[in-house]
Inverse folding.
């Protein structure tokens, strides 16, 4: 499953290739409360069909009406981007469903070959982060290497946005917990890999949209080369498998590395990695173990929820307390409390 940004860009590109008029809408700036953050994307074609969103729905309805009634300003027809602002007055905020005091500024651009959406999508697929600079005077676009999670910058001449690779989750172990975790990750727009070299565990495991592999965990980690948009979670309870993945993941750029288990098992794992594999303390400090936020989880689905919540929190820059230094970790299943 693609993340929403990629889906919007790919759909806009397809509509344009089919010969339809397409407008790409970007949330450039917001003030106060806003339903969608800066950088959010939406595309609208000439028939009023949409993908993505920039608000709770009312702004979308207004944009669709404008386009179906002949286009958003004459500037769009001539491929010159347009800047629109919603929510300046209390009446507008009420009309467009914006929270009290909320204001959103949008940039609308007519999609054309010079929009370079094909190159942008190719860069994302190759896991390259890209800075896209839109010239507001003529609609021309420049692409250059950049960070993935930057805040859009709008001035009188340009709109600069940042796009990059889809978030990715590598799960070690095929079981009920990994199935729930994978389902949640897919719904959040992650690309998901599940690795388990044990044939008996893979035999009945399948989930549409997930890449299932029988490689040894360390081979998979070395092949995929986790980047700053990748999370790795070890779920087998088998040190021969989990440790292999963790050793290489901790030395990668992965933004999250975690492993399930009781607090006692997690402490033992850290000691084992330190003494037998010479993993330095600063790398071990990156390990989330037991993985997950404390929510009193008991079932595989609840544990998956706690792990995914922590993964998303770390991805979004929210500091979480490591289980090794806090009792805030969820308890592992009773069978693993040894």
């Amino acid at each position: 499953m693609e993340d929403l940004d990629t889906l919007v860009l790919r759909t806009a590109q397809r509509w344009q290739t089919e010969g339809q008029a397409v407008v790409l809408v970007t949330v450039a700036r917001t003030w106060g409360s806003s339903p969608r953050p800066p950088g959010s994307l939406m595309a609208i074609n000439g028939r009023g069909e949409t993908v993505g969103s920039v608000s709770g729905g009312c702004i979308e309805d207004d944009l669709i009406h404008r386009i179906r009634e002949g286009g958003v300003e004459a500037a769009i027809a001539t491929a010159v981007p347009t800047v629109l602002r919603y929510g300046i007055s209390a009446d507008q905020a009420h009309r467009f469903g914006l929270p009290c005091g909320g204001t959103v500024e949008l940039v609308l651009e007519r999609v054309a070959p010079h929009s370079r959406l094909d190159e942008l999508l190719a860069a994302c697929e190759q896991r390259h982060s890209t800075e896209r600079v839109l010239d507001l005077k003529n609609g021309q676009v420049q692409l250059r290497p950049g960070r993935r999670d930057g805040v859009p910058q709008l001035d009188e001449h340009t709109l600069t946005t940042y796009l990059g690779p889809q978030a990715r989750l590598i799960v070690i172990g095929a079981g009920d917990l990994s199935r729930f975790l994978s389902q949640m990750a897919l719904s959040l727009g992650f690309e998901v890999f599940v690795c388990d070299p044990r044939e008996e565990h893979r035999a009945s495991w399948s989930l549409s949209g997930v890449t299932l592999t029988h490689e040894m965990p360390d081979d998979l980690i070395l092949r995929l080369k986790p980047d700053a948009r990748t999370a790795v979670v070890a779920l087998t309870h088998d040190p021969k498998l989990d440790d292999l993945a963790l050793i290489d993941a901790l030395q990668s750029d992965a933004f999250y590395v975690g492993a399930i288990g009781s607090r006692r098992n997690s402490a033992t794992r850290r000691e084992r990695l330190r003494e037998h594999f010479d993993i330095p303390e600063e790398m071990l400090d990156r390990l989330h173990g037991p993985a997950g936020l404390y929510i009193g989880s008991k079932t595989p689905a609840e544990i998956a929820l706690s792990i995914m919540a922590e993964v998303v929190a770390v991805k979004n820059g929210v500091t979480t307390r490591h289980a090794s230094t806090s009792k805030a970790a969820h308890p592992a299943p009773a069978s693993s409390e040894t």
In short: Residues 168-336 form a domain with the Rossmann fold fold (CATH 3.40.50.720). The chain has two domains: 4-163, 168-336.
